[in-house]
Amino acid sequence: GAVVSQHPSRVICKSGTSVKIECRSLDFQATTMFWYRQFPKQSLMLMATSNEGSKATYEQGVEKDKFLINHASLTLSTLTVTSAHPEDSSFYICSASKTGGITDTQYFGPGTRLTVL
Amino acid sequence: AQSVAQPEDQVNVAEGNPLTVKCTYSVSGNPYLFWYVQYPNRGLQFLLKYITGDNLVKGSYGFEAEFNKSQTSFHLKKPSALVSDSALYFCAVSRVGTPLVFGKGTRLSVIA
Fold this sequence. Notes:
The complex is a heterodimer. In chain A, 0% of the residues lie in helices and 51% in strands. Chain A is built from no helices and eleven strands. In chain A, the strands form two sheets. In chain A, strands 2, 4, 5, 6, 9, 10 and 11 form a seven-stranded mixed beta sheet that branches. Chain A has a four-stranded antiparallel beta sheet with strand order 1-3-8-7, with no helix packed on it. By secondary structure, chain B is mainly β. In chain B, 0% of the residues lie in helices and 52% in strands. Chain B contains no helices and twelve strands. Chain B has strands spanning 3-5, 10-14, 19-21, 24-26, 32-38, 44-50, 56-58, 64-68, 73-78, 87-94, 101-102, 106-111. In chain B, the strands form three sheets. In chain B, strands 2, 5, 6, 10, 11 and 12 form a six-stranded mixed beta sheet that branches. Chains A and B meet through strand 5 and strand 10 of A and strand 5, strand 6 and strand 11 of B.
């Protein structure tokens, strides 16, 4: 149990276009979903936390107008990278938490590799 | 602010030998500690966590970790390493009111 999927797994786009990444909890309801960014050979950096039906909470330094997050249901959250630029190229990973509690385990998706040309 | 240190970028161990992946943390208050494993081009998989109670935590795939409050450590261990254990391991810490913070990761290589 506790499977999280992401779609697409890999996307290549032109500079200036927008890209949407979906994160789904397949066999549980996720009160809270998280979006991370991982650079090569580096750790995960939390971008934002989203609770179903509420506005996302963004970490310091993350542009909320550039990285739009929607958590419309208990099984789906989306991250839209608007007007993507080459510096946005990265590995984006989502995770989902059943209760959103601080001690609750986060279950991670397989990640989406974004390449902006 | 809390932080996590994984002092070794790379750990090499022979198959069948015991393995240890080190993690130390810094946090005010009671820490909540997690270990995750990442295989190439994959997301993170949960291994184990310490919230409260017994300091020795047993997790998936035969891994265990011991919470040591005086040394602020949470080292990951396994009695007998497998080649399939080769992956990137992340330690993470949180506490009440703060998000999960990850270490930089330790690449484990188990040699047959």
